[in-house]
Specification:
The complex is a heterodimer. Chain A has 6 helices and 7 strands. The radius of gyration of chain A is 17 Å and the shape is globular. In chain B, the strands form 2 sheets. In chain B, strands 1-2-11-10-7-8 form a 6-stranded antiparallel sheet. In chain B, helix 2 packs antiparallel against helix 3.
């Protein structure tokens, strides 16, 4: 097999963003489960050659402030952080960080550049935002078509207002009973979703360019 | 854990599997397909298609296809990429390519001798396109499935050498690339469909066949082309941006024309390793048999 690798800049990347709520209410078992879930997700993706070649991972956490703890990084180079929970729920700030990264870190398709695949964003939160989030939510939802991302929002427990998540994305999931096992199952599902997207990236026809997500695990409902 | 061993130096993953499709599955497709044809008018057509690493890893079939044809002074090539989201993609691409080529040959042979050649090309390609669509519709009906299940792209080309230069008709629905090298220039021959998101495209089945007819275009080249190529996006995508990389593709292809079995050499070439490139790969090329130096 000959090598036809014409320079490093022309591989289409599949940007993956994890937006994780690490506010005080996630303390204890939930944040432990999130840490384990992120590690599990990473290890699953590292078993998937299409994800290894195309997926780039970013992790944005939000509590009293939002931080991009892992900038958009080639999968094999990612260092998984250890997350600790405390503080409030600055969802708006996290959406601002996401929006900025989608603008600056994702390469659009153009006649002179091989653009990235449509980014996948997995947002996970267990409470109501404590900052001014509405403007950032609208900015995310109103992104121009060429720069749009697929956002999947998961609300964990009864403290989440579905309408908040619906203002960000049409794809909203709810986990009613937040247990470590459910969180683990969720991250397994995220891994399956990414694997499916990374191998089926040339699959869709215009007008049906949605990511074909696998059915969520039991205990997690799709909110229509 | 160490990640070093997960990729080669060029970023290609080392854990790709090569799996066979379920033996119970019908509509079986060989993992590779090649064909070579030397025409009476001194031109050669060579094509190859191979299953991508993505399908091999999943144990699924190749979904690209192609068909070549010739009659009298005419040469024709069709390549088709069955949609990955369509359950019968492999059936759709083969049916579209083969039915179009056989219909185009009939129309070329039946064309009145006094009819303008450009019109002959245009009408024949339009009939080929229509037949491809109608064959898919008939197949869908016979199987009791929706037309979209057989979704495929469609890139067709008819060529006729003239005393000086060439006459060429093309049509493209969906992504992939039709291109030619003429003199020092490399030109793309049709506009690929790309959707609002990378990786989304149109299929022949996305609209009624009538909607595609005005995509057929016919042109004359004053100079004889050195090579005309039709390829699915599994190859074309690796040469984006075309301005930078398409010349390299022709540099790779030209030596194959000197090989005793160019179709096998092309199939081997299409086995190149490139990071992020794991789709099926299909390319058809047409060139004067006494290939001119590029």
């Amino acid at each position: 097999m000959m090598d036809m690798n014409f320079g490093g800049g022309d591989v289409r990347r599949l940007p993956i963003y994890l937006l994780l709520d690490i506010s005080g209410s996630m303390s204890g078992a939930p944040i432990q489960a999130v840490n384990q879930g992120v590690s599990l997700l990473y290890n699953e993706l590292m078993n998937d050659p299409s994800a290894i070649e195309t997926a780039y991972l970013a992790i944005i956490t939000f509590a009293s402030e939002a931080k991009m703890v892992v900038p958009l990084t080639e999968l094999t180079q990612v260092q998984i952080p250890y997350l600790q929970a405390s503080g409030s729920t600055s969802l708006g700030a996290a959406l601002g960080v996401l929006n900025h990264s989608l603008d600056h870190d994702v390469r659009p398709n153009s006649p002179t550049q091989k653009g990235d695949y449509k980014p996948l964003v997995f947002l996970m939160t267990d409470g109501m935002p404590t900052d001014h989030w509405e403007q950032a939510a609208d900015a995310i939802k109103q992104r121009p078509k060429q720069k749009v991302a697929t956002i999947i929002a998961l609300g964990c427990g009864g403290g989440v207002d579905v309408n908040t998540l619906k203002r960000i994305t049409e794809v909203v999931l709810m986990m009613d009973n937040v247990t470590p096992d459910q969180i683990t199952q969720y991250f397994k599902w995220v891994s399956q979703s990414i694997s499916k997207a990374s191998v089926a990236i040339n699959a869709a026809a215009v007008g049906e360019a949605k990511v074909d997500l696998p059915p969520p695990p039991s205990g997690i409902q799709v909110v229509l | 854990m160490s990640n070093v061993a997960m990729t080669t130096d060029s970023g290609v993953a080392t854990n790709w599997l090569t799996l066979e499709p379920d033996p119970e599955l019908g509509d079986r497709v060989p993992h590779t397909l090649t064909q070579a044809m030397t025409t009476a008018s001194g031109w050669s057509m060579v094509a190859a298609s191979r299953r991508g690493k993505g399908h091999a890893h999943q144990g699924s079939f190749r979904e690209d296809s192609f068909a070549l044809g010739q009659t009298g002074p005419w040469q024709l090539m069709v390549v088709a990429d069955g949609g990955g989201s369509c359950p019968l993609a492999r059936v759709g691409s083969r049916l579209a390519a083969e039915s179009a080529v056989s219909t185009i040959i009939k129309y070329l042979e039946a064309a009145p001798p006094d009819l303008d050649l450009a019109k002959v090309i245009k009408i024949s390609l339009q009939h080929g396109l229509r037949q491809a669509w109608e064959s898919l519709a008939a197949e869908a009906e016979q199987r009791g499935v929706i037309l979209r299940d057989l979704g495929t792209t469609f890139l067709g080309m008819i060529h006729r050498p003239l005393d000086e230069g060439s006459l060429l008709g093309v049509v493209q629905v969906g992504d992939g690339l039709l291109a030619a090298k003429i003199g020092d220039k490399i030109i793309t021959l049709a506009e690929p469909d790309t959707g609002e998101a990378v990786g989304s495209t149109y299929f022949l089945t996305s609209l009624h066949w009538k909607e595609w007819l005005d995509r057929v275009s016919v042109g004359t080249f004053a100079q004889t082309p050195q090579m005309i190529v039709a390829m699915c996006d599994g190859v074309a995508d690796d040469f984006i941006p075309y301005d930078n990389y398409l010349p390299k593709l022709f540099d790779y292809l030209h030596p194959l024309t000197q090989q005793p079995q160019p179709e096998t050499a092309l199939l081997d070439l299409l086995g190149y390793n490139k990071r992020g490139s794991f789709d099926d790969r299909t390319l058809a090329m047409l060139y004067p048999t006494q290939a001119q130096p590029l």
